[in-house]
Amino acid sequence: MATLLEVSGVSVSFDGFKAINNLSFQIGPAELRAIIGPNGAGKTTFMDIITGKTRPQEGRVLWGEKSVSLLKMSEAKIAQAGVGRKFQRPTVFEDQSVHDNLLMAVKNNRAPFSVLFYRPGFADLARVEELAAEIGLEEELKRKSGELSHGQKQWLEIGMLLAQDPRLLLVDEPAAGMTLSEREQTTDILREAAKTRAVVVVEHDMEFVRRLNCKVTVLHEGSVLAEGSLDHVTKNQDVIDVYLGR
Ligand SMILES: Nc1ncnc2c1ncn2[C@@H]1O[C@H](COP(=O)(O)OP(=O)(O)O)[C@@H](O)[C@H]1O
Ligand SMILES: [Mg+2]
Prior knowledge:
This protein has 246 residues and is of the alpha/beta class. 35% of the residues lie in helices and 24% in strands. Strands 6-7-8-3-9-10 form a 6-stranded mixed β-sheet, with helices on both faces. It has a 4-stranded antiparallel β-sheet with strand order 2-1-4-5, with helices on one face.
């Protein structure tokens, strides 16, 4: 299968401490991947490297068909190249409706030249409806975003990222603070999104990871400890030892 993102031999030190140690990772253009690992394993730092927030001292990060290096690109350029990242704290505009939040995201994607004189066209409004359906908020379009549940706000944020049509979506601990049914719906949203793009999900909740039903990468001390199906990696003795703290 083709590769969208190829990370190889990447290392990052913070004051001499190796947070990422010779890490290699690949993902295809329409693939869902879960990243698990104990606290401090380097999961968030790994995402920071891909998005350009943290620069590694060693290694390569290659992107797309032309294998361009992300390491020389600014965070803004990396986002423009198609890397979208969802942070834990939602950044939706609480005073505005779900519809208007989504429309703003669509418009930011479509009309960078004249936001001031922007009037939404039919295509943009249709795209808002489509996104709302993808994130299960089609019944909530008129509601103020501030009134949504925690889970619904997270979905709205995912919808706003999807509006930018990222080729790779990075999601850090989406299930935190969600109810069981919200977690279930979140796995459905991410699985659907990964049919047309790459999606990398960092998550602690093993039931959530099981429902994602995808290849899993286990990080430990900044390196890949194991990779494969959840059943495969949870039978791996190194993984068992790490999780039992041996
Ligand atoms: N900016 C930073 N400065 C110093 N140490 C950091 C920094 N960011 C992360 N670390 C350290 O790197 C390690 C990996 O952190 P992180 O990527 O946040 O782990 P995870 O997300 O898997 O819990 C941790 O030991 C953390 O304390
Ligand atoms: Mg983290």
